[in-house]
Amino acid sequence: MSFSVFTRSSLATLTVLGVTLVPFSSSAVVIDFDDLTGEGIVFNRGFTYIEDGFVLNNLATSFEFASVHPGDDRYFGSVHFYNNAPDGITRLTQGGGAAFDINSISLNSLNGDYAVPVTFTGQKSGGGKAIQSFTTDALAGFETFFFGNDFDSVTEVTWVQADPFHYFDNIVINQAVSVPEPSTIFGFATVLGFGAVFKRGYSRRQKKAKCN
To answer: Where in the chain is the domain with CATH 2.60.120.260?
Structure first.
């Protein structure tokens, strides 16, 4: 291995180390269904919907998910989603089963202006459950409801399509932050330190050779 190659490798290690040590910030994902297009009013969407790495499953076996589009009087400026099965359970997970934080969801009464109660249950990554209920205000249009800290680090969130029915939009989620292990950081730091010392030693030998 030549010295020049080793130097480039050391700089590459510095880059990797820099990326490894930069503090990670959580990245917000919004499931907004805007990729669902169509000229009709309501479309059936099957029993599974995937967006931005997150999965919505309709656990019912009777009626599928459906989406509301322009032309329907229940449309409020963007595509909305609902479980079309009475008492059907909707489940939200992240692909691969990783934990996530659910921040908020927009809800509205599906058929008429009713006060609709919706209860969400979260499965905690460390065990246990989180439960929170919201009730719409019986006025036309969507409301945004915010989850408490109990819904941080959940592996799934479920809720039921109970009468009077609801539809939903704009699910805001923070993906779980992965932090490098101390042993990994130490390993990178050790390799980088060795590379830096080797480079300094090599530079000194170069300077000494030029002076002779």
So the answer is: 28-175
DSSP for 76-139, written as a single string = -SS-EEEE-STTPEEEEEEGGG--EEEEEEEEEESSSS---EEEEEEEETTS-EEEEEEE--SS
- Regions of the chain short of the pLDDT cut 70: 1-26, 39, 176-212
Question: How far apart are alpha carbons 130 and 120 in whole angstroms?
Answer: 8
Distance CA 166, CA 110 (A): 5
Please give the Cα distance from 122 to 131 (Å, whole number).
6
Q: What is the pLDDT of residue 185?
A: 45
User: Which DSSP state fits 199?
Assistant: H
Indicate the helix (H) or strand (E) that contains 13: helix 3-21
Rounded CA-CA distance 16/13 in Å is 5
| 39-to-78, 168, 173 alpha-carbon distances in Å | 13, 20, 29
Rg value, the chain, Cα: 26
CATH number among 2.30.40.10, 2.60.120.260, 2.60.40.2310, 3.40.190.10, domain 28-175: 2.60.120.260
What pLDDT does residue 25 have?
A: 55
